[in-house]
Amino acid sequence: MIIAKAMIIQPTYGSSDQEIINNRNLVINHMNSLHDNVKYDVINTVFSRDLSTIEHIRKQGVEHFAIYYLGKFLEDLSKCSTICFCSGWENFKVFQIIHSIAIDHNLEVIYSDI
């Protein structure tokens, strides 16, 4: 059995925390059903939406949250060999950039309708 480190790109706008977790679990199950000899170890890329976290980020001088989170995603992506893009990813510039980088660096790219 091969263990592959992976991350999920999941648009979360308008979703509750529970919906995010439920959908994420569905995606992980989908990913793990794709290959008989590969199990995906999915890293946690669900960033806190807690207001105290947002205030903490602002206090660090961050002016552009999308760029801040792009950096976080890229740091996590550097640890992975696989990335899964969930439905709606193409509607967000940050996710389009991550997609281009994943393709350019020959990561395994999986697409999910979830």
Characterise this structure:
With 114 residues, the chain is an alpha/beta fold. It has four helices and four strands. It has helices spanning 17-32, 51-59, 65-77, 93-104; strands at 2-9, 38-42, 82-85, 108-111. Strands 2-1-3-4 form a four-stranded parallel sheet, sandwiched between helices. α4 links the parallel β3 (82-85) and β4. The longest helix has 16 residues, at 17-32. The two termini are 26 Å apart. The mean pLDDT is 93.
Features:
alpha/beta; 4 strands
- Content of β-strand: 15-25%
Walk across the major sheet and give the strand order. Answer: 2-1-3-4
- Number of β-strand runs: 4
Largest sheet: 4 strands, parallel
Q: Taking all residues together, what is the mean pLDDT?
A: 93
Radius of gyration: 15 Å
Stretches with pLDDT under 50, minimum 5 residues: none
Task: Spell out the helices and strands N to C.
Answer: EHEHHEHE
Number of helices: 4
Class computed from helices, strands and strand pairing? alpha/beta
The helical percent reads 40-55%
Give the CA-based shape. Answer: globular
Please outline the helices and strands:
Layout: E1 2-9, H1 17-32, E2 38-42, H2 51-59, H3 65-77, E3 82-85, H4 93-104, E4 108-111
Parallel strand pairs: 1-2, 1-3, 3-4
Summarize the structure.
It is built from four helices and four strands. With 114 residues, it is α/β, with parallel strands linked by helices.
